[in-house]
Design goal:
The complex is a heterodimer. Chain A is α+β, with helices and mostly antiparallel strands. Chain A has helices at residues 3-13, 32-64, 78-113, 225-236, 245-256, 259-262, 296-304, 306-309, 322-333; strands spanning 121-128, 131-136, 145-148, 150-154, 159-165, 170-174, 178-183, 189-193, 199-204, 217-223, 286-287, 292-293. Chain A folds into two domains: 23-58 and 81-236, Sandwich (Immunoglobulin-like); 245-333, Cupredoxins -  blue copper proteins (Immunoglobulin-like, Sandwich). Chain B is mostly helical. Helix content of chain B is 64%, strand content 2%. In chain B, strand 3 (567-571) and strand 4 form a beta hairpin. The chains are: A alpha+beta, B mainly alpha.
Amino acid sequence: MSAWMRSGLVLLAAWPLGACAGRQSALDPHALQSADILRIFVAFLVVAAVVWIAVVVVLAVGLWRQPSLSRHPLALHPPFERRAGQIVLGLGIATVLIVLALSLVSYAGQRSVFAKDPNALTLKITGHQWWWEVSYEADSPHLSFVTANEIRIPVEQPVRVQLQSADVIHSFWIPSLTGKMDLITGQQNEIQFTAKRAGVYRGQCAEFCGLQHAHMAFAVIALPQDEFKRWRDHENQSAGSPVDPLSKRGEELFRARGCALCHTVRGTLAGGQLGPDLTHFGSRTTIAAGTLPLNSASLGAWLADPQHIKPGNLMPQMALQSDELIAIHHYLEQLK
Amino acid sequence: MTLVAQHSELHDDALDGLQLSTRLDRIWRTPSGLIGALTSVDHKVVGRRYILTAFVFLLLGGILAILMRLQLAGAEKHVLSADLYNQVFTMHGSTMMFLFAVPVMEAFAVYLVPLMVGTRNIAFPRLNAFSYWIFLFGGCFLWISFLFNVGPDVGWFAYVPLSNLQFTPSKRADVWAQMITFTEVAALAVAVEIIVTVFKQRAPGMTLDRIPIFVWSMLVTAFLVMFAMPSVMIASMSLILDRLVNTHFFDAAAGGNALLWQHLFWFFGHPEVYIIFLPATGMASAILATFARRPVIGYPVIVLSLIATGFLSFGLWVHHMFVTGLPQLGAALFTANSMLIAVPSGLQIFCWLATLWDGRPIYRTPLLFVLGFVVVFVIGGLSGVMVASVPIDTQVHDTYFVVAHFHYVLIGGAVFPLIGAVYYWFPKISGRMLSERLGRWNFWLAFIGFNVAFFPMHILGLMGMPRRVYTYTPDMGWDRLNLLSSCGAALFAVSFVLLIANVVVSVRRGAPAGRNPWDASTLEWATTSPPPSYNFDRIPAVDHREPLWSDTESLRVVAGLSVERREVLLTSLAEADPQIREASPEPSIWPLLTALATTVFFICTIFTPWAVLWGTPPMAVALIGWFWPTGSREDEE
């Protein structure tokens, strides 16, 4: 986007706010696709602004000018009526041309935004009420793994995301990277994007999906190629065995107290499928699908009463003694 | 002109003045008392009730909007719980769309169309009464359910599978779906009445090209209702069947299809927007002509635009589904079609601008609202062109940008002209003028409040705020704009308080209106304010598109209708040549009883399929009572 366009847009959008840049903003593109869409948007915005100003000016001038003295309502001037008719018709034709031009601009943009690159990295994302299951697929099964709510991608490489739903319809949306695409029950959709810069981009479910629709966010972390590869190799490994006694107790309790019925920690006996995979939980940045930043305090609060933080979510409040809670807490934190 | 009298009964050509009006009133009057109120089939009585009820629902929906604005005024507020918030936004949308916007437009038509085409009552007046009762009961059903914590919480378009039994095991989704059935039955009934009234009951001489633009807009709207509403009724009924007897229409696991719901819903849902918007443009045209002191420029252009909009509105529904993974080229065609609808809408606006350019505007409240409408609606129309583009839509779909867009279209495009219409026709309906001073305050508060409330939402959407989130975290940076929006909403709410105050005060103490306070040109202004039960002493004869402006001394009339029984004059479809005198039904309790039986049937069927078995006989009995032959003169001949 050219500099003047950007500054014009910022000026327009920034009227009541400090800046339009944000972690989750369509006005702050960091991918080829979102930049394309913003360009089309600005083109439409300019046309719309010109049309609106023209209408308001014509209206204002029409009201301001004082035509002939008051007369009988039916005493019309045929030449004026004729000319008015011609002008209306002319404007109608102009409208047709404008919308046809905009349709073409839109279609051209659509082709570039939805262009498919066969060499893209493929991810599979499954929407759940109210979290995201992320599978990294690879040719050999031992290179495929599952994680949740946090998607790491290599920068400057096309990423193809296959979208499906385990329950109701959700919508996958990272405004800084590209537009949204629905996850529809019984159907698989696809979306593709190429991040231009490394960074953390927030995304959020955009289709109303029930009680906690508001708390179904995720993060996309774009990493330089080599860093991504390192992360992928690490993520693909099973969880390391806990070393300190407190973590060891935590691991036992994780199974004994029922956590393992829903959660998987690869490399341990915990193999539940209902909740997010927690194999490398400790290395994530947020908790409960972007609801809270992951730190010691938020994890403690979550384990103590998940229903208080995200009412209605499927994780029940476990009756844990405080020492049990501390042990599980410790165990989860060291799952880096 | 006198129609040949064939019987020995007394006709209105034999009487004059007070004698005539006394006799007409005796046969057309709604009986007084409770029985009268429950049996009335007078389109004015029913229309007034319809308008009032719709405005009560507007008020209720508005209170919900204020609750939402309180909750969203800052990050992580706790005014409403997640569960209540989800019910509140669903109730807000459902109430505004199904219990306010569509019914209020039809209500104005029920009141005004018979007066504007110069007849004594609407076609099928008992169906009209039935329609009102069904609408009232459906609305009460929804709101009483809400008060008992069974309010729907699946959004006003209730997407499956979220609204399937598996994910909404309570009765909440059924309440929503059955409310649809109620309101659509009511709307379809009115649509039929409007079409027949306009086609067959126009005053002699009111050829197709002399029909007032508002009546044209309602005629097109009625056709939209007839073609669009069955789609959502099939959808809602299938949903109820899925939930009640496991039919699996929308269950992907059993071979159903989740997207089928969206197609059916939006095939209705998009024309729905025009069902609300077209009557409003008709109101705008009527108000504009009166206050610009000249006929609207481009009558044929406007009428053809209305019809074109009607047709095009059925080809846009897919633009609500651009992010469901449809084939790209197909989606692009719907982009072009969606944008094309800007052409007829644009043509109407150009005609209005030209009219104002030539006219000598008199700045009374109704005109202010129409001017505000043009300024605001154009923004909504242009943001509509934006969301019609597939790439742009992928960013703004289901965000506050779209919330801003459709409120600009629906409030700017429909509520502004509607409030203008209230100021414009209130004198006709009540016989008294609304206060102009309060009216100006009302307008400016509404105009400023509306824009402050909704413009920031465009930016919020682009900043990534999705719709239907009950809260957001402070670090999203959305709180300042949301607070601004909530302040605007408060101003906007005050403007409605002023409107209510104005109506309440003026209905008792307003200046008497007289027949034609605005010196307007259409037939409803030819009779007294409020109009007598029989509307006109004698049926007007029309020889001009603006009858009251062309006939300054006295309106030409036709005579020959009975003064001993209710009769209306039927005329031919295109030329409005007088054809026959037709009996018009007397008051009856059966529409109410039928509506009650229907209500019991509708409500019970969401609980047990057996209600179909025992719920239908009472309806059949009521209908037999309704259609029981009474041996009218017409039947004997």
